[in-house]
Design goal:
The complex is a heterodimer. Chain A is mainly β. Chain A has no helices and 11 strands. In chain A, the strands form 2 sheets. In chain A, strands 2, 4, 5, 6, 9, 10 and 11 form a 7-stranded mixed β-sheet that branches. The radius of gyration of chain A is 13 Å and the shape is globular. Chain A starts with a strand and ends with a strand. Chain B is mainly beta. In chain B, a hairpin with a 4-residue loop joins strand 7 and strand 8. The chains are: A mainly beta, B mainly beta. Chains A and B meet through strand 5 and strand 10 of A and strand 5 and strand 10 of B.
Chain lengths: 112, 111
C-alpha cells in the first residue's frame, strides 16, 4: 500500500495564480483532511470530508475550496493565491480499518 | 472550538534523561488524545494515543498520562536517545472527525 500520497511535493506560485493540490489514499479511509502547517502554529485544519460526498469547513477555510472526488481522492484548490497561503500542506486520512489519522508527505507551497 | 495548549515549546535533554511534554485542553467532551512525532522535513507520525476511559498507556520508552478532571495529558519519554530529537504534537478530539493540535514541542537530545 502506498498509504496517503500528495502531489506536487513543491510548488511556487505568483500572487493571483490558481492551483490544485492532489491527495489520494489506498487505506480505505472514510474521512480525509487538509491541514496547513506554519512555524509555531502546529497543524490547522482547513477542510475535511467525513465521508464520500460530504465536505465541511475547518478552522481556516478562507481562500480554499475542496472536492472529494471519490472515496480515494480529496483535492484542495487555491483560486487566487496570496502570500499568506505560503505554508506546508498536509493531507490525512482516517477510518475504515483505523480511527487514527495518517498523514501524506506534504506539499511545500510558496506564494510570491 | 477545542483549544489545546502545549508546553514547553522547546526542550533540551541530555541523552539518557527523561523528557516530559504537557498539554491542556478546553472541551471536557474530548475523548481521544493522540501524540505525533515529526522529524525535520517529514510528515507527522502517530507514536501513541490514549482514550478518555484510560488513565495511562505505555509503549516501550514512551508513556502518556491523562487527567480528565484537570483536562491535561502528558507525554513521557524515558532513556532519551538522539533519534528522539524531533517536534512532538499533542492533539485532542471529541469524536467529531476533527483533531485540534497543540503548537508543538521541539525536543533536542544532547549526546
Amino acid at each position: 500500500n502506498a498509504g496517503v500520497t500528495q502531489t506536487p511535493k513543491f510548488q511556487v506560485l505568483k500572487t493571483g495564480q490558481s492551483m490544485t493540490l492532489q491527495c489520494a489514499q489506498d487505506m480505505n479511509h472514510n474521512s480525509m483532511y487538509w491541514y496547513r502547517q506554519d512555524p509555531g502554529m502546529g497543524l490547522r485544519l482547513i477542510y475535511y470530508s467525513a465521508s464520500e460526498g460530504t465536505t465541511d469547513k475547518g478552522e481556516v477555510p478562507n481562500g480554499y475550496n475542496v472536492s472529494r472526488l471519490n472515496k480515494r481522492e480529496f483535492s484542495l484548490r487555491l483560486e487566487s493565491a496570496a502570500p499568506s497561503q505560503t505554508s506546508v500542506y498536509f493531507c490525512a486520512g482516517e477510518g475504515g480499518d483505523t480511527d487514527t489519522q495518517y498523514f501524506g508527505p506534504g506539499t511545500r507551497l510558496t506564494v510570491l | 472550538g477545542e483549544n489545546v495548549e502545549q508546553h514547553p515549546s522547546t526542550l533540551s535533554v541530555q541523552e539518557g534523561d527523561s523528557a516530559v511534554i504537557k498539554c491542556t485542553y478546553s472541551d471536557s467532551a474530548s475523548n481521544y488524545f493522540p501524540w505525533y512525532k515529526q522529524e525535520l522535513g517529514k510528515r507527522p507520525q502517530l507514536i501513541i494515543d490514549i482514550r478518555s476511559n484510560v488513565g495511562e498507556k505505555k509503549d516501550q520508552r514512551i508513556a502518556v498520562t491523562l487527567n480528565k478532571t484537570a483536562k491535561h495529558f502528558s507525554l513521557h519519554i524515558t532513556e532519551t536517545q538522539p533519534e528522539d530529537s524531533a517536534v512532538y504534537f499533542c492533539a485532542a478530539s471529541k469524536g467529531d472527525y476533527k483533531l485540534s493540535f497543540g503548537a508543538g514541542t521541539t525536543v533536542t537530545v544532547r549526546a
